[in-house]
Specification:
The protein is α+β, with helices and mostly antiparallel strands. It has eleven helices and eleven strands. The structure holds iron/sulfur cluster.
């Protein structure tokens, strides 16, 4: 690990101001960043500890939703009675992620900001445009079984690994931030994570030094809320495909996919197909899919997973 300096921020605005330094990184739970530092994939020169900022509360909003502090731990969020009752898809997605020990440390903001698990990203002997911009993409033409099938580019075909983010996307959450100049900013989840395009090293819409302070959920959507994750083993594995769904009694609803793209994948126009069943809905949701030979199975797997979710929603 490379040497770095360390400070504990006193306020969110002070933390964001300190992050003007291009070598600075925020640290909270550290469940991803510390691994990346040990592997020298990330080498910050300055760490800003944000754990003492008091951003660890879950509060009702005047509109009838919930405001989740950036530092609320995944375990606490999954167990919150309001989340379990009104946003069950979020609680289920959180419990599908990682292990109990990791959920005890991982924060709401950190979960959104975790980096891809593309194996070439973690191997510093291999070219990777996300790790070293312009170096190439070893995954293209390599082993791609776990990688993206939709929204890819010629520069990167990685997936975003978060389960929680898929549920946040189907719930239409909004990310709240503070910028280095002290101004606040609200980013809809639909715009928070980026597609790789020709800048795959940029994962999110955050500006340099911008600190997440909370994630806001709108008033409860009701309906049957289901998160189904398909993976190679029963725990401690990332999704091959996941489906977050909110399905109303008349069959209408919303659906977002995990494990298939560089961001939680939701195509709102395609949701009109949901009452007609999984096949037409998934054909519309993955209409632009460009799978590789290794991961073409994900298209069928997504359709079958949605069919199972719709069947469960109907009881
Ligand atoms: Fe890197 Fe993306 Fe290519 Fe993986 S898919 S090697 S993360 S550029």
């Amino acid at each position: 690990m490379k040497p770095f300096t360390f400070e504990r921020a006193a306020t969110p605005a002070a933390a964001a101001a300190a992050a003007r330094n291009p070598g600075a990184k925020f640290i909270a739970g550290g469940t991803n960043l510390l691994d990346l530092m040990k592997l020298q994939i990330e080498a910050p020169t300055h760490l800003i500890d944000v754990n003492g900022l008091g951003l660890d509360r879950i509060e009702p909003t005047p509109e009838g939703g919930l405001r989740i502090g950036a530092l609320v731990r995944n375990t606490e969020l999954a167990a919150d009675p309001r989340v379990r009752r009104d946003y069950a898809v979020l609680s289920r997605a959180l419990l599908a992620g990682a292990t109990g020990q990791l959920r005890n440390m991982a924060t709401t903001a950190g979960n959104l900001l975790q980096r891809t698990r593309c194996p070439y990203f973690y191997d510093t002997n291999m070219a990777c445009n996300k790790r070293v911009p312009g170096s190439g993409c070893s995954a293209i033409g390599g082993v791609t079984r776990g990688l993206a099938v939709v929204g890819t580019s010629e520069h990167c075909i990685a997936t975003h690994p978060s389960d929680m983010a898929v549920a946040m996307r189907v719930l239409d959450a909004t990310v709240e931030t503070v910028r280095p100049d002290g101004s606040t900013h609200r980013i809809p989840m639909a715009e928070f994570h980026r597609l790789p395009g020709d800048t795959p090293h940029i994962d999110t819409a955050l500006e340099a030094g911008e600190l997440i302070t909370a994630v806001t959920l709108p008033p409860p959507a009701g309906g049957a809320q289901i998160y189904r994750k398909v993976r190679d083993r029963a725990s401690y594995a990332f999704a091959l495909v996941s489906v977050a769904a909110v399905v109303q009694p008349d069959g209408t609803g919303r659906v977002a996919l995990g494990g298939v793209a560089h961001k939680p994948w939701r195509v709102e126009e395609a949701e009109a197909e949901l009452p007609r069943g999984a096949r037409p809905a998934m054909s519309a949701i993955l209409a632009d899919a460009r799978p590789t030979r290794d991961n073409a199975f994900k298209v069928t797997l997504a359709q079958r997973t949605l069919a199972s979710v719709l069947a469960e929603a109907k009881g």
